[in-house]
Structure formats: C-alpha cells, structure tokens
Amino acid sequence: xxxxxxxxxxxxxxxxxxxxxLKSCESLVLKFVREGSKGYLVLDKTIFHPQxxxxxxxxxxxxxxxxxxxxxxxxxKGNVIVHWGKVEGDFVENETVKCELSWPERFYNMRAHTAGxxxxxxxxxxxxxxxxxVSANHGPNSFIEYKGKFSKNLQVNKVVEVANxxxxxxxxxxxxxxxxxxxxxxxxxxxxxxxxxxxxxxxxVEIENVNAMPCGGTHVSNTKEVGEIKIDRIEEGASTFKxxxxx
Length: 247
Prior knowledge:
Strand content: 35-45%
CATH class of the largest domain: Alpha Beta
Oligomer: single chain
Largest sheet: 6 strands, antiparallel, barrel
Order of helices and strands: EHEEEEEEEHEEHEEEEE
Radius of gyration: 19 Å
Number of domains: 2
C-alpha cells in the first residue's frame, strides 16, 4: 500500500480505548485499497487494536454492503489505523461497515498485558529495586525483557506468589490521559520510561496501589480477570534477561 494516501486522512478514533470490552461497532470507510485477494481498509473509528507496545494486533472481520474482510493484521501509521486481510467482494468509500472482533484473542491479550504489568511490580517487590523493561510480548508466548544480568539469587517462586496475590485481591485497573508536563505526578513504579515516545499527552494505565505507567494497550478492568500467572522459563542474554510467562 502506498502510505502517501494516508496523509490526507483524518486520525482514526480509537474506541478500543473508550471500552476495551466492546466486541463490535459500526464505522465509515475512508479508504480501501485492494492488492489481489488481500486489501487495506481505513475507517473513521475502530475497535481493532493495532500491533504495538508489546501487544499483538486484533483479528476479526469487517463486513460491508458488498464486501467482507477477514482481518489478519492491524497497523498504525502516524495517527491512522490500517486493517489488512483477505477480502471477498468490495468496499465503497463512505459506506457503513460492521466491525467484529475475534473476542477470545482480544481478551487473552488484555489479560496477558495486565499480567505483564503485575509481573513488573512483583519483580520490583522481590528485588527491592526498580526494574527497567526493554521489550515485551503480551500475547501468545508472552514475555517481558528486562535490562541487566539475571541474578541466580532471584526468588522466582516469590515473584509468582506476589503476582498472584495481586490477581486474587481483585485490584481495579483504569486508564486516563495526562499532559507531558504532569506525567510525574501520576506515574509510579513504572519500568518502561526509557522506551516511551516523546508525546504531548500520555495514556496512563494504573493498577490500584500497584503501578501506573504510560501504556497504549488494552487491559482488563480488574486483576481477578487475569487468572493465575505462571513463570514458564527465563532466558539470559548478554545484558538482558527475558521472563516468559503464561496465564
């Protein structure tokens, strides 16, 4: 797809931030580009979360009057979200289409992402020092990569215990927006500050009395929804280590 066509389009309204539990919505087609049996679709608003910030993109389907897209990948280019997938039929600009998420995958990603934030805190609590994240995957084959050498003295079982205590306590999870100059008044126990982009406004995800950090992902509203957190293995690198976990 020629990305220059996106420059004239208005930013996509991200209604997955307003309600992460919304499974379907109606949207207007702003642009459709076909490439063989596949295609790219831009809408005025979407419930599909794009890949980014360690979270896989949503999948599902978009249905119009004469066409249907099996959404396999969602990308964000600038402020425009692009849906990509196999297309049957055609889409017409300015027509109303129905967006439907594949909910099991979305809900898993929400649970895995919140679990990742909980593990950040549990590691901090057990280590007694702030940790710094390098990368993450909050989907199938979940992991968080941390800066530094892995300590053989780390009590992994204790990390799991602390994490699951937070799950069982049913802490509330919320999100809100803050101006750049106000961010330090709201964040706490945030491990990802070294890798966040320079923005005027940040979306903060806060787990009650656990941590609050800039985050662009979708999350559950209460930690009880995460389910049991398990650490499957730890991989050591030259200057980082990865904790692989499952829920």
